[in-house]
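Hey, resending since the last one bounced:
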Amino acid sequence: MIQTPSKPSIAFIKSGGVGKKLPNAQNLVAHCVSVVLLTFCSFANADATKSSVSTTPDGGVVIERAESEVADFRVVKLVSGLKNPWAVDWLPDGRTLITERSGNLYLIDGKQVISLSNVPTVWAENQGGLLDLAVAPDFKDTGWIYLTYSARENGKGGTILSRARIKGSQLTDVEELYRQTPFLTPNYHFGSRIVFMNDGTLLVTLGERGQRREKKVDIPTPSTSVGATVRLNRDGSVPADNPFVDVERALPEVYSYGHRNPQGMAIHPQNGDIRQHEHGPRGGDELNLVEAGNNYGWPAVSYGKTYRGQKPIGVTSAPGITSPVEYWDPSPAFSGMAFYTGNAFPNWKNNLFMGALAQQKLFRLELGEDKTVTHQEELLSSEIGRIRDVAVGPGGYLYLLTDMTDGGLYRLEPVE
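The structure tokens again:
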């Protein structure tokens, strides 16, 4: 459990005269002992910032009433003091798992906050670090949780998918399943979200690692997993029916390609459609309907513009390129997304919710039978901060995770 140094220990060290001029050998020894003790305490509590993580299991109301077109709600804060959290999910027994980009993985049970040990080493720089987590649908039988994170070797890095089990306060059986191919030098555009498909496979989004500018690999192409969605079996092997299994010079794990930096993905609960959004540059954030083997065009086809000069990047459509279902300009900077499947908000059933970082709001989208966006609504504009993850959790409520240096986990609850 996360703890802070006790006041008696600090008082004892201060009484030893650290930092004062010591006139004799006896005091010098005392001084050295004090320094050793202080150093030990510093290392023993090197994660002192973690002590700021606190919970309010019953929820502390931060917004009494927020009005939506079809369902009003209040916002309660369940967890405070998180430092740039990235993803949230729940074990079948209701305990909460939360990742922080710095590499911390928390297991929260009521008021108890445990920082799990033996988490894979991550490359926590710029946009990189510990990213998504997803509890396996068959967790009760297998005990697996899945993690994505950025890692670096020999000056180059990329996104890795691993799985592990939880035993007490540590991860066990940690197993790397897949790594983005190839590793590259930029410290941004890693993706990355995990979703499980009903056929026993999983999908992982992988960013294009800044290759429009760096141009170390060709994009868009299925010959790498740069700017791609990969489909894997849960043990990391490649499904035999993947679209590029028998295609020369293509990676068999690639499911779709031509993506920029997709940080949200969800599967429609009724028709199984794979919905994915991705960051555009200056404008051009997209919502895509992802289908096997399709090319989504980045950077040859885009609604985005360059950051400098605001010049169009490529064209907006081309033969053989799958156009987005919807795009936004200016960019909301979308991150997590989820279809609402709970019962707490009947009028939100099967609506798609997407969190925004730059615009600091929650988008509610209604989708038509023709698979287009028929209506959208913006909620919580700048009221709780940068929304990094969106998830349906215990009680059938909608949960939001904010990417801040003092980030939090929030729950939306219906009000009459």
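The longest strand covers residues 54-66.

Sorry for the duplicate.
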